[in-house]
Amino acid sequence: MNTPQLDKTYDPKAVEARWYEVWNRQGYFHALPTHPGQPYCIVIPPPNVTGSLHVGHALNHSIQDILIRWRRMQGRNVLWLPGTDHAGIATQNVVEKQLMAEGASRESLGRERFIERVWQWKTTFGNTIVSQQKQLGESCDWDRLRFTMDEGLSKAVVEVFVRLYEDGLIYRGERLINWCPRCLTALSDIEVEHEEIKGKLYSIDYPLEQDPTIRLTVATTRPETMLGDTAVAVHPEDPRYNKLIGKQVRLPLTSRTIPIVGDAILVDREFGTGAVKITPAHDFNDFEAGERHNLPRISIFDDHARMDSGGLTEAAVDQGIMGKILLRPARDARAIIIETLQHADLLLKTQDHKMSLGKCYRCKTVVEPYLSPQWFVKIKPLAEPAIKAVEDGRIRIVPEGWTNNYLGWMREIKDWCISRQIWWGHQIPAWYCRTCNGKVLISTKPDGTWIIPREARPVVAKTQPPLCPACGDKDFIRDPDVLDTWFSSALWPFSTLGWPEETPELKTYYPTSVLVTGLDILFFWVARMIMLGLKFMGDVPFRDVYIHALVRDAEGQKMSKSKGNVIDPLHVMEQFGTDALRFTLASMASPGRDIKLAEERIEGYRNFANKIWNAARFSLMNLDGPRTATAPSERTFPNRWILSRLNQTIHVVTSELEAYRFDRAANTLYQFIWHEYCDWYLELIKPTLQNSADPEGPGTRQTLVETLETTMRLLHPFMPFLTEEIWQTIPHQGASIVVQRYPIPEVTWAAPEMDQRFALLEQTIGLVRASRMLLNYPPGQQITFYVAHDAPQPQGHLDQLRSYLAHLGRGTVDLAPTPHWPTSNLLRLVTEGLSVGIAVAGDVDLNKALDRIIKQQSEQTKEIERLEGKLRNQEFTAKAPPEVITDHQDRRTSLRRDQAMLISSEQQLRAMLGT
Question: What percentage of the chain carries pLDDT values higher than 90?
Answer without folding.
Answer: 79
